[in-house]
Structures are given as C-alpha cells and as structure tokens.
Amino acid sequence: MPHDHPDHFHHEGVSPSGHPYRDDNDGPLTYWQRMEIAVRELLIEKGQMTPVEIAAQIEAMDSRSPTNGAAVVARAWANPAFRVRLLENASEASREMGFDIGPLNLIAVQNTAQTHNLIVCTLCSCYPRNLLGLPPDWYKTREYRSRAVCEPRAVLREFGLDLPATTTVRVHDSTADMRYIVLPLRPAGSEGMTEAELAALVTRDSMIGTGLPRQP
Amino acid sequence: MAERVRVRAITPPGHVRAPWYLRGKTGMIERPLGEFHNPEQLAYGLPAAKKRLYRVRFSMAEIWGEAAENVTDTLDAEIYEHWLEPEDTHAP
User: Fold this and answer.
1) Chain A closest CA to B91's CA: distance in Å?
2) Which 8-state DSSP code applies to residue A86?
3) Is the ipTM here above 0.85?
4) What is the value of pTM for the model shown?
5) Of the listed A15, A65, A124, A146, which one is catalytic?
6) pLDDT band at B88 (very low <50, low <70, confident <90, very high)
7) What are the pLDDT digits (tens) for A82-95?
8) What residue segments make up the domains of chain A, in order of their start?
9) Which CATH class is domain A65-208?
10) B4-86 adopts what CATH topology?
C-alpha cells in the first residue's frame, strides 16, 4: 500500500494522508540566514536594487535547467564546427546559442572511446549553474565530493556505469574560477536525428559524467 | 612556468583554493587559464591582485600511490601560480 508506513501504530503527528506533518519553518534563523536578510534589506534600503529585481533574478536562476546544456551538447554532436568552438571556449559557444550565462567561465571536456570525464568540486559545490541550473543534492554531499577524486570508478559503478580498465578516467576538480561540462560521446544509432531529438538523449548526469546519454 | 610543477606543501590559514590532497604532489600543466583576482583576498572583501591560474593534471598514482584504483587515470585541478613551484625545487 502506498501509504503504509512502518510506524503505522503511532498516528500522532500524521496527516490524514498517512504522511508525517512537516515542521513549519519558524525555528530560529541561522547566522548566515540572518546575514543574507540583513544584506538584502540594506541593498534595498540604499537603493542598490529592488525586491522586483531580486525576485526576477531568483526566477531566472530557477528557469535554468539541464535542457540548456543538452541543447549545447546536441549542437556539438550535430555540428562539427560548433564542436570545435565549444572545446576551445565553451562560454562563448554557449552565449552564441543565446544562453545568458553571465560571467560563467565554462570548459567542455570531451568523452572519447578511450576517455571518460567526471566533474566534482571537492572544496565546495561549484557547478555550471548559469547553464545547467542548480546542482543535484548528491553533488554537494561530502561523500560524493571526497569519493569522486579517490575512487571515481567505484562511484561510477554505484551510478550504474562500470567502465573497463582500458578506459581512462579523467576527474576534474573545479577548485577555482572555471566550471565544467562533459561533452558525452554521441550514442550509436543516433545518425540522422535532428538536434532536438539528440538533445532529448542528453541527461543531466551525462553532462556531470556520472552517466551516459540515453540510447535512441 | 615549468611544464612539470609541484603544489607547494604549505598550510597557510584562511580561504585557500589549493585542496589538501594535492599539496606536495607533482603534475603537468594542462593549460593556462588566464588571470583572475586572487580568491584568498576576495573572500575577505580585500583588494585582490590578479594571479595566473593553471589547470594541472596529476596521475592518480601520484596522488594516491598504491591505493589508486587505476594508475593511468588522472585528476585535473585549477591551481594558482603562487601555489606552484618547479618540480626540481627541493620539497620543504
């Protein structure tokens, strides 16, 4: 039964749907939450920005998604000249497609028949947000960040990707000002597909390197 | 900047962007990335001079020794020039 919880003898604090009630977010603010509110209110009071501008910026970030990156990858698969430009300067190539990526310094790393690339940020959670949107929660965990650099093959196996020893794994730690996107290998059997059809094969994880594109 | 470089094995306090697991490790410069304002000052809102940034490629064997999953696998990281020294510099 979908609503069968292991603790179904204890119905206190459980909603009529059978799920536990979620706490209201009226606990005390953390230091950094208070700091964010203080800075935001000061910026508004001093006329540096308006609440409308802040809301618009949040909305712009929320509207970014892996489909932006998928369009870039699909064009690189379909258009060899664009692929060259993407590998030379991924920021310019993304802007050329009309993506507003702000000051993002993007590097595209290309998978080949012999090489598989994996992206991580061990120091924090650097991610090409301005192109792909917010990172998945696991990308920010201490476990992924530490294990991706010392046992990438074991991590990839947990994602369902068991690479042969003959494939070279290249891990990229985003330690400073650059952000990374993996240009996965174009799947066999995708010949003749349109750019839009190709983009539908590109998953978020295939652009982080923890997965491969879908098979057509 | 030499082709083969070592990440300086120093432990300054503060907001540094050279990961601990690469300190004292030797790698090859994969490509220069240009100059960026030094994040070690930026993090504190201080005037930050521009520093050259490099992508350095390390072998997993260099980083993890015998514990490496596959010795030919590599790790690339961005390291600022003031964290790098030529390989032949005597390690501290």
Assistant:
1) 23
2) H
3) yes
4) 0.88
5) A124
6) confident
7) 999 999 999 999 99
8) 31-62, 65-208
9) alpha beta
10) SH3 type barrels. (2.30.30)
